[in-house]
Amino acid sequence: MFERFTRASREIVVGAQNCARDLGSPTISAGHLVLSLSRTAPDHLRETLHKYGVTPETVTRSLESAGELGDMDSEALSAIGIDLDAVRRDIRNKFGRDILDTPAPRRGWLGSLLGQHLAFADGAKNALELALREALARKDRRIRPEHILLGVLRANDQSTRALFAAQGASDRLRLDIYEFLDDAA
């Protein structure tokens, strides 16, 4: 499926992975896709999101309230006397600054700690599948960032639905995205 993604769409997906990793999340959620879109989407789409109040700050707050930041792992380790930030600092000091940015071959919490490639949560998988369906329904050959956002809006992900509903953005935003896609065709 990813071979159909434009370069900008691939950057959105990689950005979502980076957002999830930066926020300490064990998986990439649909919310991380929205956060990446709000930060790195092409100007017209990012500005439209911001117009509806979907900014990096509002998305991050939404992820915090949905408990998608991975703080529970850090808190659980802290409860047994392990400072996760100190461990990361020690690893970077010993093995180099970018060691945690390199995908690790391990799985589980240790692999996540060491910076392995993160898996997609069900909501993000669903959003990306729906992005493909949006593109196919429109007979678009490539999946653009607009398709990803349409997929997120259609996905059965409660936290992103709540975010867009709180900003009053869902219906009008969808129409704006269709206009962008029509203009690009």
TrEMBL record:
Top-level taxon of origin: Bacteria
Domain Clp R residues, every copy: 2-183
Keyword annotations of the record: Repeat
UniProt-recorded name of the protein: Clp R domain-containing protein
Organism, scientific name: Hoyosella subflava (strain DSM 45089 / JCM 17490 / NBRC 109087 / DQS3-9A1)
Origin organism lineage: Bacteria, Bacillati, Actinomycetota, Actinomycetes, Mycobacteriales
